[in-house]
Amino acid sequence: MEITEKQKQFNEIYEELSKNIDITETQYESAVRSYKSVGEWLSKPDSELAPFRPEIFPQGSFLTGTMIRPIDDCETLDVDLVCRLEGKRPEWTQNDLKQIIGNRLKNNGTYGKMLDDEGRRCWTLLYENSSKYHMDILPSIVSSGYTQVLEKAFSRNQFEQAEELAIRITDRFTYNFYSESSPVYWPKSNPFGYALWFQNRCNITTRKAVLLNENVNPLPDYQKKKLPLQRVVQLLKRHRNLMFGDDEDQPISILIATLSAKAYKKETDVISALRNVVKELEFHIEERYSPEYDRVIKWVQNPVNPEENFADKWPENPRKEKCFYNWLNKLQTDLTTTQNARGVQLQESMALMFGKKAVNKTFSDLGDKAYNDRANGKLFMDPKSGILHRNSEKGTIVKDHNFHGNKEE
Questions:
Q1: C-alpha separations of 342 from 268, 336, 348 in Å
Q2: pLDDT greater at residue 21 or residue 385
Q3: pLDDT in tens, 221-250
């Protein structure tokens, strides 16, 4: 269905806004250079890890193209990475693998100073340069030939291969962290299978996906132009961040991304996708009986691991569930308010949703664009509604102003 000129204007605003909350190409490339250097250090010939060909790969929002910059410029970006090893020594436990990677980082004069306290699953490097980010590096084990399987799955957009992309990871909260040497019994994760699923949900047509491509080793290029679902997830995460700040019970990003992807109906513009996702989001939260809690609980299934519930923390911490629904209710109310607003009121209502700085820049950028279009005879007005647009068949040209007191020639 063709969208109206009013919808096109809203879509232009949300497109421009999502660009202004996205990470910059400079930030992106800086992070890529940093993690490539870490991978090179881990794999040097004198490293105990070298025989297992360690490689660093992105995961999470950095891989799916849904990362956003912090609201406050002083805050840091969170870059999620996986350190993949093809095999290990037979006697190594999860703890052994994690400590060997940690010790290797400590033995580097630079990384040793940047290393944060050991996390549950990851090692974290704190970068204090102009880009301000920290990298969470998750140790993992894969089978020989994994990289080829990964590249084939993404280059051909084969979601049916997602299960083959699972990896074994370290988690010091597991009972066998110090004792089990067989990776078969280590925790399993599938960040690349999830990214493949998300890529499939993003696709508008049956053409080859643009989210990721053959160059997934080690990372796809920076995306200046993104698909509607990616933009929607970025906007929802921004609204979440503005509402909750540092509140640890705020809705987690993987939950927002998964529910958005499930609700998405292949809309080709951001505003239509945003409206639909916000409306349909909650209908993709299931209710299942849990033997563990002996009652029905909320369930958001991991699309590449049916046994995993992304809302698994809700039963033990009811405030997390409450925060989610409070956020969703506010999101729906805020979106309705902006849809009914005009002019200055529209800018003000959007500033409350997404932040004053980003919204003011968005309207300023669009104002500059409109000025240039008018000056070049590319801006038109619908004679009935007064709505400005760029379709010459549906209106009269908006003439450029003359600020010098001269008659137009």
A1: 24, 12, 10
A2: 21
A3: 778 889 999 999 999 999 999 999 999 999
Q: How far is CA 250 from CA 122, 255, 318, 334, in A?
A: 21, 11, 12, 18
Give the integer Cα–Cα distance in Å for 210 and 252: 25
What would the pLDDT profile of 3-27 be if each residue is shown by its tens digit?
Answer: 677 788 899 999 999 999 999 999 8
Position 192: which residue type? F
Residue 10 identity (one-letter amino acid): F
**How many Cβ atoms are within 10 Å of 222's Cβ, its own excluded?**
15
Separation of alpha carbons 85 and 81, rounded Å: 13
What DSSP assignment string belongs to 96-147?
Answer: HHHHHHHHHHHTSHHHHHHB-S--SS-EEEEE-STT-EEEEEEEEEE-TTHH
Alpha carbon distances (Å) from 69 to 23, 138, 242, 327, 358: 5, 22, 12, 20, 11
CA distance 222 to 26: 10
Q: How far apart are CA 116 and CA 96, in angstroms?
A: 19
CA distance 251 to 405: 57
Alpha-carbon distance of 390 to 234, in angstroms, equals 27
Question: Considering the entire predicted model, what is its pTM?
Answer: 0.87
Is residue 89 helix, strand or coil? coil
Helices (H) and strands (E) in the chain, counts: 13, 13
CA dist 73 → 218, 308, 363 (Å): 28, 35, 20
